[in-house]
Amino acid sequence: MLQEALRELEEPGDPSGDGRGVDTAVDADLVDTAVLLASELCENAVLHAGTEFEVALTVTEADLTVAVTDRGPGPLELHLAQPRQRYGRAASHGRGLALVQRLATTWGTRHEADGRHVIWFSLAREERPAATPAPPAPPDAERVWTTAEQARWLLHVPPGLVDRLEPTELVAELVRRLRELLDAESVSVEVDEGDGTGAREITRDGSPDRGLSTGGEIISGLGTNPGRRVEVRLPTTAPLRGVLRVTHRPGRPDADPDRTRDLTELIAYRVAMAVESQWLRAVDQRRRSWMTYLAETSELLGQSLDVDLAVAVVPQVVVPRLGRWCAVHLVEPSGGMRLAALTHADEDALPELRAVLDPDGYPGLPAELRNRLAEVVRDGSSAVRFAVPTDGIALPLWARGRALGTLLVGRPQNRPHSPEDVVLAGDVARRAALAIHNAQSTAAHVAVSQALQQALLPRALPMVPGLDFAAEYLPASTGSDVGGDFYDVLTVDPSSWLVSIGDVCGKGARAAARTGLVRDVLRVLVRDDRSLPRAIERLNEVMIEADDPLQFCTLAAAMVRRRHRGAGSGPTHSHGASRGGLDVDLVLAGHVQPVLVRADGTAELIGTFGTAVGLVPTVRLTCTRHRVDPGDTLLVYTDGVTERRRGSEQFGAERLLTVAARAAGRPAVQVVGAVREAVERFSTEPLDDDVALLAVRAAP
Length: 700
Description:
Layout: H1 2-8, H2 28-49, E1 53-59, E2 63-70, H3 96-103, E3 106-111, E4 117-124, H4 147-155, H5 159-164, H6 167-182, E5 186-192, E6 199-206, E7 229-233, E8 241-247, H7 257-301, H8 307-318, E9 325-331, E10 337-344, H9 350-357, H10 367-379, E11 384-386, E12 392-399, E13 402-410, H11 419-455, E14 467-474, E15 485-493, E16 496-504, H12 509-527, H13 532-545, E17 553-562, E18 582-589, E19 595-597, E20 603-605, E21 623-628, E22 633-637, H14 639-642, E23 645-646, E24 649-650, H15 652-662, H16 668-682, E25 691-698
Antiparallel strand pairs: 1-2, 2-4, 3-4, 5-6, 5-8, 7-8, 9-10, 9-13, 11-12, 12-13, 14-25, 15-16, 16-17, 17-18, 18-21, 19-20, 19-22, 22-25, 23-24
């Protein structure tokens, strides 16, 4: 656009047309010079200011003036996140002002109050009078900036650009400015974040310092002339430390050491602000990451109440976040230690590590580590560092004032544990200890509940010639909830047996206590020669006295007597002539009807419903007598069989009769097994109620 405007001025003419206008014809060489210098200034505005710019052209009889206005602070190369071109025209930046100085008649800069910066130059359209020649400029002379201008150019970065720059980019720009201003060989910044990794160089402008090696420690200048170097500590907050280092060119000593140190200290404050800002941002991000990590750890640890699973999760959440390997040792009841869980980032190293950390393995725990673990378990102290078999920390697993074991964490790769790592590992250890303690408490509770559940069932069924007993119990829960279903077989005399099955309302300790009450009271009453109806009535009175109507019980009780050949048949439900088998007196107190499976392949429900015990003071009961011929089977069960659900459909009594009839003539254990298998096959859902089955078969 500028070139087109100047080309139009190459033709002589009078723009006003009245002979009084200014002759605007411009020489072609002058046009080329103006375009060259203007393009350099525009390029500087694009590359260094990074803002929009304006170009103004003024032509008079004596001069041609071009002014380029931008809103930037001056040279700024790294204002974009993406690196710019480092070759071609963009790589030869910084020569625009030198060209302007050599080719322009006059030039200068102007800084407006609104933040705009104007660089202008003028080209004379005719030769200047030789009467007052300017003194010749020295070769490659450059404009000398005042101290205030140097400080302003060194430090000033517009807020708009600061928001677009990463702290490391801003530090790199400040370092580059300082090097250019001091004409130093190199300027670098090293930072030690206090995390155990040592110092690292975050930026450098210029060639590497000869005789120095970075990484690990703040460079002290070994092998070089200390007079060539200026080092200024960055004024940062502990544990962050840093140094700004300026190295002068060989053979060119610093002409003004005080100025160099003043400018270096001035820029060190600005660099420290950027470095600390980035460090605080990283710390905040790490802490947010740790919070998320701890929340996920708590969720994983709390997902299982199984001790082995809870312990196995601990090393998985520690490695590799906090270390290369992790081991959990638990305290045994005998006081010894056992290796409960172990993992390593390198699976090939697991066998060797296990041999060293397993107290029962070979070579076993080193004496030093064994003593450290004993100290941690005994005192419950904070983290203890160890060096054998590798560097790491040992933390106590304490919960509810009791020592559960220890957590060993090997050091991360290429660095020791930082204080932040130790604090975080201690937090993980506390959460892991609580999860393990909860799992151990639950396991102990489950063991007690299961022992109580087994105590409510007979240890073994009687072995009687001519009779075949079989039973199965399927609890709906294998945890700490004790079911209320029970069955029992009591030998009253050599030819009589009390067969009972019941279902106490509810689950848990109260239901278990009521179950034991029903079973034991019924046993005592029957042994006291009371009839079944009278015994159940007395049982109801005992339960009513407990004044807990929510703990009622349904009960099916049968007095089974051996019938000798030639004995007469009973008064009720007799079938044909006497030929051996069993006589059964049956009382149902709110319980489901038993199934009588005949040897001929038929099955029927028997008994008369009565009132459940523990609900009302007076119960209505009916005793019915049934004949179980040789080969027949009496099957009693709880409502978990018939009420087994598959969606809205129930297993039901009809399906039970069909399954039982198919098992006719088989031993009692096969009849029970057939029914159990059919119930389990009926639905894939877990049991929602306990299932108890008890079969009595008269031998054929």
